[in-house]
């Protein structure tokens, strides 16, 4: 039985991916800061097979706890899914909140990737969940977009470093999804135009397909998102940023 560790597993994309991997006979370790939600998911999937690890990955001591766990357990798959962001104008969001999101979205991803890859074997895989915003800035979400650009470029570099070792690394970049991420960030999914929103089931299915295919270092989820980025190629950077500013749920229009 293969083993996988998933961060941010208590809801949204992580929850859906966990269900799909369990159906493929993976033994899962589910990581999140909400113990009750983790226990509910564990009971749903099977307490005899799957385990939970409570950790708040905005805290350096908890990043170290999960890193130590990865270093002492041989996992076949790591999915760095946990992430956070806050919508709003840069100077109107507390600095502490934005720095915490940088720790979770970047420091935790780097630390857990390091612990996993130091013990990785041929056939193992690492998926770092980023965002469509890895390809674009977002006025009204400046720090979040910047962290996801980091994740995408970091993952591509690791893909190259490990591809000849038979270890697959990819950055998976979903667009807006109907998960609780947006309400946690201070806006509802309804703040986005409907044409850019995917269901979390669609996102999870595409992540699993990417994991099964193992052929790209950077994956943009959703045909409509790929088409939007293709269209941006014909615009100046200034025009593209202006469009993102007009679409942004973090700015009042």
TrEMBL record:
GO CC terms of this entry: membrane
InterPro entries in UniProt: NAD(P)-bd_dom_sf, SDR_fam
UniProt keyword terms in alphabetical order: Oxidoreductase
Protein species of origin: Sphingobacterium olei
Family matches, as Pfam families: adh_short
Listed GO MF terms: oxidoreductase activity
Family: Belongs to the short-chain dehydrogenases/reductases (SDR) family.
Domain of life according to the entry: Bacteria
SUPFAM superfamilies per the UniProt record, alphabetical: NAD(P)-binding Rossmann-fold domains (SSF51735)
Protein name as catalogued: SDR family NAD(P)-dependent oxidoreductase
